[in-house]
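Running this now, will post back.
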Amino acid sequence: MERNPMRRQLAAMRQSLFDQGYLDEQFIQLEELQDDANPNFVEEVVILYYRDSARLILNIEQALERKPFDFNKLDGYMHHFKGSSSSIGAKKVKAESTLFREYCKSRNGDGWQDKLGQWRQHVAPIKKTNIYIHICM
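Update: finished.
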């Protein structure tokens, strides 16, 4: 009996991530790949994404501490982050990564500094997906 309210709450959490634009249809495709042969597939993919993202964020922050900015290196990090975000359906993070790549192409260090906080805000809600995954899967 207790599971029904929990399932409704989890379904609402998942739907909220879609409604707010944090996730896109790619996440649904990941869920569809999970089956009896790979019961933890989505969880494993999301965990790998978080580990990789944490490393990339650290690399980006360290690169931003060095002046002048190495825009080629920053662009490489964001290219990787954009691809990773796209593969799990992290829609807002992917969009912000695209914007940061444009800053690299235009060599706009001020744009990087100004938008980094907003970018972090888009990464944080995706962590709810991790909570959803651990409870559901």
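The chain has a mean pLDDT of 83. More later if anyone needs it.
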